[in-house]
Amino acid sequence: MFESELVREMDLAASAMAAASADLLRAVRTFDEERLWGRDGATSMTSWLAARYNLTRATAAEWVRVAHALRSLPAIARAYAAGRLSWDQLRPLTKFASPENDDRWAREAPLQSSAWLWLEARRYEEMRTEEVEQVHRRRYLDMGWNEEKTELYFQGRVGAEQGAALERSVLRQAEQVVVADDPFDPLQARQVDALIELVTGAQGADSASATLVVHAAAEVLTGEEGGAPWLAETESGERLCSETVRRLACDARIEWVLESDGRPVGIGRRGRTVPGALGRALRHRDQGCRFPGCERTRWLKARHLVHWARGGGTNLDNLVLLCHAHHRLIHEGGWSTSGHPGRELRFHDPTGRPLRTAGLSLLDRRATA
Fold it and tell me: Which residue from 116, 145, 164, 279 lies 20 to 30 Å from 92 (Cα-Cα)?
């Protein structure tokens, strides 16, 4: 009698878990479709879930994938909510079921083991052989500048294999991009930023930082411009806002061009790059981008918490690793930090609200590693 009561209790609990999971997946899909994760500085729904609920990125990504797949599979979604399908059955099922056979699989899948469903999913994923030689021969990439050399235009064409690889890389990278400005098309802006990161991020971690040629008043770096118009521009004439200059100057060689009446009168160089040994210690301590839920280990920048132009030291107590996206968010996006990078570092949105996460402090993570 006692055994049957335990079984019934577990059956009810498993059914309740499935129903709660179904509710969670619907909420995840809606939250992602409305891109509400961006309010907390996250680069994607995956990173937001990872930070909020202390999940691995793989688990968070699977929640997002399944949640979106269920939108076009209402019969399967109902079967899962009713407890007729387990999570281990649902995952492979959403990889190959379609709206056309949704009703069929909602009836048949509960009768199949999860192992059989995974085999079926792999069978559907097998690539079909097709003739691609002519498509490959038509590949091209064309690039050209406008007359003022302020914009580069490019277009191209590649075959299915190369196109799928490019699309997959850009879309994955775009999930980790934060758009700090207000572009005309945020989705396309994220994708082009992702492409640039992929191209420029090919350098190794110890490669030399870029040389930034700055034509500007010194007040640009210290943030003491007052009401003066911005005067920062690159060597080739592109104008830069002050926050962009300060972000680029966090870990760069700064080449100063001193001017008088619009004419250069002197050139100097001043650097605040992070030396190799200090950089290695910083990477060992932080392991990756410190923004909650990000977990990126490439395209990282060493950020001075107190900018070196304002007296901040280039040492571990004043440095933190941030990816390109979240480095931009801190500068151009108006976010800020508080706390100590070696213990607990907190991130605050432009209103000063601290980002709530379920993550552990750096010391806690080391203790549980």
Answer: 164
